[in-house]
Amino acid sequence: MAAGGCGKFVDVGYERFLGRMKKQLWCVCLAFALLWVFGDAQNASCQTVDLTLSGVGNDEISKDIEVDTVNNVNKFVEKVGSLDFAVGQECFQLKLNASVVADVVVSTCKRSSFDTTLILLKEAPTETQEQLPDDIFLNRFDPTCEGSEGTMRSTVEYRTVENEEFLYVVVTGWEGARGAATVSFNVKKAEPLQISWGLDRIDQRNLPRDNMSSLSRGGDGVFVYVVDSGVNPTHSEFLATDSTTSGSRASEGKSFVAESDLSDCTGHGTHVAALIAGRTLGVAQGASIIAVKVLRCDNRVTLRRLLAGEKNSSSTRTFSFGSDVQGPTRSSLFMSCRGKKRRCWQP
User: Fold this and answer.
1) 203 near 213, Cβ under 8 Å?
2) CA of 321: how far to CAs of 153, 206, 214, 288, in Å?
3) Helices (H), 127-251
4) Residues 213, 196: Cα–Cα separation, whole Å
5) Which of 82, 88, 190, 219 could be disulfide-bonded to 286 (CB atoms 3.0-4.6 Å)?
6) In the chain, helix, strand, coil percent, each to 5?
7) Distance CA 134, CA 218 (A)
8) Is it true that the peptide bond before 208 is cis, omega within 30 degrees of 0?
9) Average of pLDDT values for 20-27?
10) Which residue from 331, 267, 328 is spatially nearest to 293, judged by alpha carbons?
């Protein structure tokens, strides 16, 4: 009896040992499987697209590449600023002629079955970009694309500088969307820009002017509150191809005048917003505008309305008034404020 009981005890212990080993073996296999899936996505490399110009004459290169992200597990960029992106991404390394200043355009306008987002980077992509610095250009909707009903298609534009040999473009979906698309790449030798005196002068310290501007599509991810007479968001100056909103980079914020309509009845606020972020004369052509209306249609503003508008703005804000401020102090006012502590200055 004792021997039999001992044998039974040994059998039960052996079965328990095997059961534990099976569980551990299963966990090890699962860990290897996950490592293979996510490791393969992490170690995925960018596909090289040769767009090297010869530098002779009006050289131009165009290429189309088909992508399908339905079964794609790659993730090159997970976060840009406050925007999160899921797996299902394609990455392209654009090889350029470093001695030629060129205009680069990448677009999904030709064909796309899903809402695309294009991210152009000057450096190889990393999973997390904490903010939108000057070397990242992002676009999820290009309102100028023809035949794009039902899907949001994207375009990013960039002018290279000397000694710039590589750019990187990540194709992903908006809010996890996946599908098939044609990614079009176009690069051509840049023509000298006939720019305004202001843009020409603002980017250089020394004279004479060089009739060029290095302010290339800056301002992405920046929100500017224009405290003025309102802004017309449908104006063509704000329908730029690097828009990150549905159709316009200008939006209506809040009105502090008796009439709640946010429309710009004088045109002054729209004029100021176009100087800030308009696609023709704007200094930060990728910035987003939020209108804060404090000027009435008779071009008058009280100090109380002005301060209320300033307190309800954040990030970067601008005031530009040529009319008298109705209040304790009657004077012409031009003032800019920046930051959470609302540091303001008057030139």
Assistant:
1) yes
2) 39, 30, 29, 21
3) 197-202
4) 9
5) 219
6) 20, 30, 50
7) 6
8) yes
9) 59
10) 267
Q: CA 241, CA 153: separation in Å to the nearest integer? A: 10
What is the arithmetic mean of pLDDT over 141-156?
79
Measured CA to CA in angstroms, residue 173 lies from 40, 170, 248 at distances of 20, 10, 20
Q: What is the mean pLDDT of residues 44-60?
A: 88
Spatial distance between the Cα atoms of 238 and 245, rounded to a whole number of angstroms: 10
What are 271's two structure tokens?
């004029």
Beta bridge partners of 289: 224, 250
Q: Which amino acid is at 25?
A: L
**Strand positions, DSSP E, the chain:** 47-50, 60-68, 79-80, 83-84, 90-95, 102-112, 116-121, 128-129, 136-139, 155-159, 166-173, 180-189, 223-228, 250-255, 288-293, 301-302, 316-321, 325-326, 333-338, 343-345
Q: The tokens of 131 are what?
A: 């903010």
Give the pair of three-digit tokens for residue 343. 């540091």
pTM: 0.52
From residue 113, how far is each of 138, 150, 178 by CA, in Å? 19, 9, 8
**Residue 229: what residue type?**
S
Tokens of 242: 């690097």
Number of residues in the chain: 347
- What are the tens digits of pLDDT across the range 273-330? 998 888 777 888 888 898 888 888 777 777 777 777 777 766 556 666 554 444 443 3
Count other Cβ atoms within 10 Å, centred on residue 204: 13
Cα–Cα nearest to 219, from 249, 199, 262, 260: 249
What 3 state SS string does 107-125 have? Answer: EEEEEECCCEEEEEECCCC
